Amino acid sequence: MSLKTLPLVFINLGGEMLYILDQRLQAHNTSDDNSEKGVWSDKDRKRVMNDITATMFSKDFVDELLKPQQLYSHRTLKTVLTRLAHASIMRLNPASMDKLYELMLMAFKYQVFLCPRPKDLLLITYNHIDTIRELVKDTPVVVNQVDEMHRKMIEVYSSLSEGEFQLLRQTLLIFFQDMHVRLSLFLKNKVQNPNGRFALSTSGPVPHGIYVPGLIRVFDSKGREVRRSQFPTGGTYSSSVKEGCFELRGDRVITLGVNMYTVHHPEETQTCKAPPVKEELNLLARLMGSMKDENKSKTETGFWINLFTTDEEEDQASDSRGADDSMFGLISIQAMQDEQAATELAQIAGQFAEQKQPEFTSCTKGDDLLAMMDDL
Amino acid sequence: MYHKEKSIQIKNSASSLYNNLGVLRIGPRRLTYFTVVHANVVNMVSASWDGLNYSHRQLQSKEPNVATSTSLIIQAAFCVLPSRELLVVTSQKGIQMYESDGSIMVYWHALDTPETPTAQAVFARGISAVWDNYICVGVSSGSILVFDVPSKGSNITLSEVLEEHKEAITDMASECSGSQECIADLVSADDGGNLCIWKSGEEFQLLNKIHGFDMSCSSVKLWKGTVVAGYGTGQIRLYEAVTGILHAEVNAHARWIYSLDIAPFSGLLLSAAEDSLVRVWHLNMTPETNSVEVAHLHNECVTDTQICGAKFCDADGYAFAVTGYDLSEIIRYTQT
């Protein structure tokens, strides 16, 4: 339908991608894991942000985006976003990219769904641009690129009518249709229900330019009001707050599109699935003993071995891991995380077998462990 | 006043499009047809009145003789003429007309689409049967295509193109098809909130133009010479069609209105919006004082749902049906 969706799609999805990557790379920075791999310095992280942003806001990319065209398919969009992510030194495996894409899409779907007025799609986009600008603020060249794109957006979109914005929004909503992936951050904040649907409130301030419901006015043929009455609205609405700023800099007022990951615990960049998908290594670790938390020191945890794993004992094991257990039912973004998990398992195996192994191959270790259990 | 009945499950969820629910009551066969648009598909359900039989059908938007080309459907609506009933489906590519059960396509009209995409999207939206033999369809350019429909067969022809609106047509409505004489029998609405009032004929006559407030009018109805219009501001306005006099204004919803419907025999009005609420009103015309009373009767909240279609299932307003974005069911309510 609308031929003007692509710039909004890329800035908003790209923005969400940068938020998530920034947050995950910072999480990897705080790990006190001794392994050299899997630790990202501040400098590395900023470089990733700069590289991706520079590519996303490069003149050629922007010019291509701004051409009137139909929205890409999911497959094409994911391919382009993957290439964007790989414009940096970071590499994401396909499984990670799939999960990242889901996270990005659901976050953007939420923003589009809850957008107070269709025109506020621009404010959401500008929130993303503002935050991206912050992420790359140490590199003036990239900041200039961001500003340039922002100016073009203002030029192209400022004159669109509300009806055209609604058409744009409807096009995006068709694109997101039937996606109900649950995000742990959304579930926790009750913006998403357990069935994956977003919560819609029937109270609060009305969007700017909308009248608080409840009033019926009747006029005579000369246009004079002759009667007014109230009706019960079934909600508790209040007057709108002020309108956000559509200029290059300013208070956007609405918060949709700001970085929702910064104030929360690192594990929040996760999607939820009922059965844990990450699999052989976890199961093996559970059979061997409790899964070690990233931040705990190796020597502190008392490992207990579940020789005869009954369901009851497995439940006890999962209970004792505590509420922060990120493995149970959640999937974390694996930028190099395979190696992390492998290293942990190597440590478990190392404790059990009383020798430390610098190299790790999961298959052989797994076989060794199982063989040991069989012997008992 | 109303209570919820058993919902009808549909094959796909409803897309977020204005007026996304079509209802046709087939008295002799004790059936009701429902249509709900999902992306490039129209989901049709035929529901028997005893609630025991449901049959489903899906129509895709394609140009005839082109197997692969599909496009997004914008609207599907039933057009009731004295001699026949047709299902009209509009998309980015053109306009399709089917027999009311969706079994056979009787007519295809391709929209003029430029070779290379211009900045403006091209699509058809706004469907209404008018008088005895016309079906009018709006276009994103603001044009209105008037089709002449014979009492049977597929010899449907484009009779006229009305160029009055400058913005994309959003919705159209008519009254007095066939039976009575009406001064105005068609109203058209656009993305700027402008309303045009027409008298049908071999050449349609523009009777009046009511200017908008730069806010899209997403749904419009015509009843007893009164235009009932729903806007993106959540307001409903009632105008006298021919004179443009504003009778009443209701701050009805907290978000964009997506659908209005009127039950002509009882004067019940249904409004539905993205704020998840459906409201039932009563319109009372007093011709002596030339005034209209609007009374609020009932609210229904469809939790966490942005409603995109709401229609009465009968001319008395005894029952109504609702669709919502991402919802794979048609929710029904009946008077208690």
From TrEMBL, chain B:
> What processes does the entry annotate via GO biological process terms?
cilium assembly
**Which residues belong to any copy of the WD repeat-containing protein 54 beta-propeller domain?**
1-334
Keyword Metal-binding on entry: no
* Alphabetic keyword roster: Repeat, WD repeat
Residue ranges of the WD repeats are 250-291
Q: Which Pfam families match?
A: WDR54
SMART domains hit by this protein: WD40
Q: InterPro entries per the record? A: WD40_rpt, WDR54_beta_prop, WDR55/POC1
- Cellular component terms (Gene Ontology): centriole; ciliary basal body
Q: What is this protein called?
A: WD repeat-containing protein 54
Protein species of origin: Solea senegalensis (Senegalese sole)
